[in-house]
Backbone:
């Protein structure tokens, strides 16, 4: 059976050519880049080249990139590392209500050592209002963390405006952004954004799992979280995963090149789905912002049915999608993102996320648009809520 | 030029077959193991199989293994995670003087939040005396961390005795061991050792970089350090690096199988080098224990010459070795391990470590034994210390 993969936010395939770039560092050039002898030299050179590509993708200098093993690790390093380094200056952190679990859990842990957190709300489209951030600033505030784009609802946040307004009122406050869902898929420039730190992950732009990085603006103090050797300028210990980093480097290079074309192509496919799905099935609504959203992302709430049941039914028809961020997809909680956007608990359970990959074709979208209505119809027949709704409607 | 790689402790090649096992998870089965749909299923199954092999290697249950991205990360997770989880019980930690930087730096960081550390000494062979550990126990002690084997001097520590004596005196004290240099190279059984936690790394037994794990005895409380999703039972967030984990699993399976033969073969080669080198060059002494040492490990101090100069000269002749643990090899510090063993600063600078890999042949050792004397002779000619020595000797 042909399978249609629309779960980019959970995992993406490697871009063509990335595997071949990684391969020598698994097969032959196995040296440690920190070694003094020649057998580490190929690895050291490849690491430096990858650092160039990865930093260039976001407009940073190579020395401003700290490689990590996941976006989650980069977020933990940023939140804990920056807050701890600023502890003498203050103990207040601002984060949005729709941040990834890695950010929200990291601030909860910091609270145990005396930090205080303010959770900034979002509107019904999942947008953070810069004014809400600014008004929550205190003289003790040392760190603001707002994501670049949300992987569950696709909304792109006004990070540039937030940074500008925060820095205007409180120049000493550091701003971090979790750009895992955005980097490599939309143009990002750390100087234009004005952020002090930015987390991003290789797999999100068709690099390997196990590759990610934290951009840290030159001169910004950071308390390392994984301590050990001199790797990454002493800011993240552990032997470098050379193959993964090389793969991320090549993916970054390819993503930068493909960006303009891909943006146009993905946006068209996304909009085909966003327009088509609510026409194909009644009582389906887009979640997130219609206008300011990730080009590969279409997310919905489907009334009277559960996300999990839809996923399994779609899977049976050869379509892979998701209902949650991958980190919690096997758990049964309702999305904190959708609740923060004001959706009620029942509706939030009907969450469905289609996230397109580079190879997604218009025919795939059309296949989904055909396959989806009978799935929903069958599930709704089993739903007492839907029966009630039909009765109310006199149908 | 033929190259002879004797730097296992810095990096090892993949065992034959490991790359091919990893390959599908880079090329085709790219799904996220946490996904509900079928595209994550191959990854989820491979992850479970790898967990079986990795846990079996050390006699643990699959649920007792937490995958990390490096031995350094596993050590940080163990030291910080166990200490923080025991904070209400006490604030004292015991570590040996020759632990890896990841352990020593982690305890230093814990000291900032109120922990106290006792550094247990080692003897001239780098051995920890269990009595020295027991005598340092306090009623506030919550954690002991002693390495299974040291990568700089090859000494295998009496971990089993230490655990037995610690638990006899203070049953509530947790014991962690950094087994990165030992696991997969010597037989290890967590039940026989009696430890509560054990760090190990895939590359040390011919698995990929980026693969490592922490054994955590069932029921042991741990504060996660990389927080995020539900991966690894909520104890270590971040999308699993499936290919790396699969590679570690296959390497563990192969290491277990190869262990008996390899032990015999490596020990013979090691002893050929340990006996041969001091015969080939005067004023060379073995560092670490002659009897209780890693089968792949031969380390020396060469008088009147610097380790770095020797490494570069050997490299020029096609031989890769190291002078330090890889984590600090590009830094210029003198080994804290050798200083803890009572070597003076000058002698410690002449440190040289040959660590054999599975493909090392007797001919490689003989090539080294031939190549080494002229290297030392040339360097000693430039050494004022050596000139003084010759004068003293009346030569």
Residues:
């Amino acid at each position: 059976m042909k399978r249609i993969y629309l779960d980019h936010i959970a995992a993406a395939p490697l871009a063509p050519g990335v595997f071949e770039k990684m391969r020598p560092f698994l097969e032959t050039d196995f040296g440690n880049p920190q070694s003094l002898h020649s057998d580490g030299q190929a690895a050291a050179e490849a690491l430096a080249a990858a650092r160039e590509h990865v930093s260039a993708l976001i407009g940073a200098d190579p020395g401003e990139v700290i490689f990590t093993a996941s976006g989650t690790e980069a977020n933990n390093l940023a939140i804990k590392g920056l807050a701890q380094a600023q502890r003498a200056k203050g103990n207040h952190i601002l984060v949005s209500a729709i941040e990834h679990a890695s950010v929200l859990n990291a601030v909860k842990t910091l609270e145990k050592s005396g930090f205080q957190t303010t959770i900034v709300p979002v509107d019904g489209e999942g947008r953070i209002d810069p004014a809400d951030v600014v008004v929550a600033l205190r003289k003790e505030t040392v760190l603001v963390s707002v994501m670049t784009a949300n992987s569950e609802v696709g909304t792109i946040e006004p990070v540039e405006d937030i940074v500008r307004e925060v820095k205007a009122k409180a120049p000493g406050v550091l701003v971090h952004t979790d750009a895992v869902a955005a980097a490599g898929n939309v143009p990002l420039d750390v100087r234009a954004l004005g952020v002090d730190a930015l987390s991003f992950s290789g797999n999100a732009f068709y690099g390997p799992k196990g590759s990610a990085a934290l951009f840290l603006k030159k001169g910004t103090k950071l308390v390392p979280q994984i301590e050990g050797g001199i790797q990454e300028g002493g800011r993240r210990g552990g032997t470098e995963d050379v193959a993964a980093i090389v793969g991320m480097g090549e993916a970054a290079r390819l993503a930068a090149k493909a960006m303009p074309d891909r943006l146009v192509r993905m946006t068209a496919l996304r909009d085909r789905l966003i327009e088509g799905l609510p026409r194909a099935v009644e009582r389906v609504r887009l979640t997130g912002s219609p206008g300011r959203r990730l080009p590969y992302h279409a997310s919905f709430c489907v009334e009277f049915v559960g996300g999990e049941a839809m996923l399994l039914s779609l899977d049976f028809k050869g379509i892979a999608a998701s209902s949650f961020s991958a980190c919690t997809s096997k758990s049964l909680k309702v999305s904190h993102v959708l609740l923060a956007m004001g959706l009620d608990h029942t509706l939030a359970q009907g969450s469905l996320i289609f996230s397109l990959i580079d190879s997604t074709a218009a025919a795939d979208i059309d296949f989904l648009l055909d396959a989806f209505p009978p799935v929903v119809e069958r599930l709704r027949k089993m739903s007492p809520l839907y029966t009630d709704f039909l009765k109310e409607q006199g149908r």
User: Anything to note?
Assistant: Chain A has a mean pLDDT of 95. The two ends of chain A are 37 Å apart (CA to CA). Chain A has two domains: 4-10+259-393, 18-254. Chain A touches chain B through 73 residues (CB under 8 Å).
